[in-house]
Amino acid sequence: MSESIESKGPLVIIGGAEDKHENCTILREFVRLAGGIDAHIAVLTAATAYPQEAGIEYDRVFSHLGAAAVDIVHTEEPDDANSPQLLEIVADATGVFFTGGDQSRVIRVVQDSLLEDLLHKRHREGIVVGGTSAGAAIMSEVMIAEGDSTTHPYLNAVEMSKGMGFLSQVLVDQHFAQRGRLGRLLTALLLEPHVLGLGIDENTAVVVQGDDLEVIGAGAVTVVDESETSHNNLSRLLKDEAMAVFGVKLHILPHGYRFNLKTRQPSVPEGSLVP
Amino acid sequence: MSESIESKGPLVIIGGAEDKHENCTILREFVRLAGGIDAHIAVLTAATAYPQEAGIEYDRVFSHLGAAAVDIVHTEEPDDANSPQLLEIVADATGVFFTGGDQSRVIRVVQDSLLEDLLHKRHREGIVVGGTSAGAAIMSEVMIAEGDSTTHPYLNAVEMSKGMGFLSQVLVDQHFAQRGRLGRLLTALLLEPHVLGLGIDENTAVVVQGDDLEVIGAGAVTVVDESETSHNNLSRLLKDEAMAVFGVKLHILPHGYRFNLKTRQPSVPEGSLVP
After folding, report:
1. Interface with chain B: mutation pick from A152, A203, A215, highest number of B CBs within 10 Å
2. A254 to chain B: which residues are within 8 Å by CB?
3. What is the span of the domain harbouring residue A132?
4. Mind listing the pLDDT tens digit for each residue in A238-261?
5. Is residue B269 part of a domain?
6. Measured between CB atoms, which of A177, A186, A245 is closest to B150?
7. A258-260 and B170-174 beta bridge pairing
8. B248 to chain A: which residues are within 8 Å by CB?
9. B118: part of which helix (H) or strand (E)?
10. pTM of the entire predicted model
11. What keywords does the record list, in alphabetical order (chains A, B) (predicted)?
């Protein structure tokens, strides 16, 4: 068992395509959780094939929002993830941010490195860890490595792999409404029973603190709970056949709504007039 | 209240893009329900802007499958829906099939016509009514006229209108997985409480007989049941704000699975080894 998550830092898990030019609601909240105008932010570009461009873009927006320092951590090869200079940046950071790209690149480069150990140590010490798109997918212990977005649930529609493991018992899918990924997430959850699915729309995020999750941004988060399903056909399915499942529970949560990961109960925004 | 649906003919409601060249599983079942090699099929092209092409295509496939007669009913203007020649075709048909296109065209042309009355009379007398894509959307009493497919639930993401009403207490959305329409269907269902949602994938259909629904085809049908939801924010929502809903129930049903519209319970295929 992992230790209590209560002592860990917050997570900001973004469904991709977050606003970087107008109110910057989500990135603004990330900077606030990283210490506001005292924030030292390390931007990890491991996921992207365009690390220079991604680094410049996030340097611009985090600096514009008032962070005291923004450092870009490029890890193009696994060796880079053991580089003393890069480790020093993360050791001093008050917030770490994973860019988008391909989630498998992050795991390939960071897995079993000193950087991986240090990221977990810093998170346990309380710093915020954020990520968008591929940087959101890697947050869980098991992640969706790749998969066809647009089909109904199929056994071969999704490929699972190890994630970075900042959050346990959860599976994250991103660009959720925009890419019609319900089928892909349902399939992944049948392969990983007891895990809760979070389908995060673009320009939308969940902020996780302890067992509490709050939604921020323009879209919604679809919480997919398969814990009370009464039937699925996984045991008799061949590879290209369609899955069946009875009794999946969904909650659609827009800005301000909360969800408790332990009790699996959603709740309305504080101060809401609606019961 | 509408009369008992037990006495009515079957419905074959297809999510669009059904196979017309290989096994033709769905259209084959439609022809079988229309009387097999004795079938007289009327193809209604009201939905499409290309009625000639659609008529030729369905004439080819239904004839190929062995139907005794296939007649095309073109109704480009509302007057056509009162034409004695066209009404005679429907009066003699053992099955009626609505092509795809734009569901609003069907309602505009057929509503309040002699054709509308006759279609309901023939259906009550027991003939099968089928439809694909737009021809599936019109099956219900209230239908999704149009709406943005790819967003999360938004109050303005969907426009509802009157359907043909062959099936009550149900709302149909088509091309479901392929166009990522969960958000659109969830929104429509919040606007039409007590109605059950059927999200039908391409090359997939439900065959409705009495209260019993069976899935056929390559994809799956997503049954969306909002009857046990514990909260939604519809009453306080402005037009461009994201919807919230707690506790939607989903069943994903591939080929051979059944669902009872009265009890709202899914069931596994007969002879299945899985409980």
Report:
1. A152
2. 152, 233, 241-244
3. 11-261
4. 777 788 999 999 999 999 999 999
5. no
6. A177
7. unpaired
8. 249-252
9. helix B114-124
10. 0.90
11. Carboxypeptidase, Hydrolase, Protease, Serine protease
**Cβ atoms of A222 and A186 closer than 8 Å:** no
Query: How far is it, in rounded angstroms, from Cα A267 to Cα A253?
Result: 9
- Does A219 sit within 8 Å of B152, measured CB to CB? yes
The ipTM value here is 0.91
CB pairs under 8 A between A and B: 139
Burial (CB count within 10 angstroms: exposed 0-12, middle 13-18, buried 19+), residue B49: exposed
Q: Give domain status of residue A275, yes or no.
A: no
User: Based on the structure, what is the number of domains in chain A?
Assistant: 1
Is residue B178 one of the residues assigned to a domain? yes
- pLDDT interval class at B147 (50, 70, 90): low
Q: What is the mean pLDDT of chain A?
A: 91
Token pair 């798109």 is found at: A133
Residue among B116, B202, B214, B226 flagged as catalytic: B202
Give the C-alpha separation, A3 to B189, whole Å: 42
Q: Position of tokens 């429907």?
A: B90
Share of chain B above pLDDT 90, in %: 77
∠ CA B102-B107-B112, nearest 5°, is 165
- Give the integer Cα–Cα distance in Å for B239 and B245: 16
Residue A183 phi, psi dihedral angles, 5° rounding:
-60, -45
Chain B contact set for A249 (CB, 8 A): 247-250
Amino acid making up residue B56: I
Shortest distance between the Cα of B34 and any Cα of chain A, in A, equals 28
- Chain B interface, best mutation among A252, A263, A265, A272, by max B CB count within 10 A: A252
* B1 is a domain residue: no
Number of Cβ within a 10 Å radius of residue B4: 9
Q: Is B2 a catalytic residue?
A: no
pLDDT beneath 70, residues of chain A: 1-6, 147-157, 271-275
Q: What is the DSSP letter of A140?
A: B
Q: Which residues of A touch B255 (CB under 8 A)?
A: 242
Give me the CATH number covering residue A51: 3.40.50.880
Q: Which CA distances in Å does A122 have to A26, A90, A126?
A: 21, 8, 7
Which residues, numbered 99 to 158 in chain A, qualify as contacts with chain B under a Cβ-Cβ cut-off of 8 Å?
Answer: 149-153
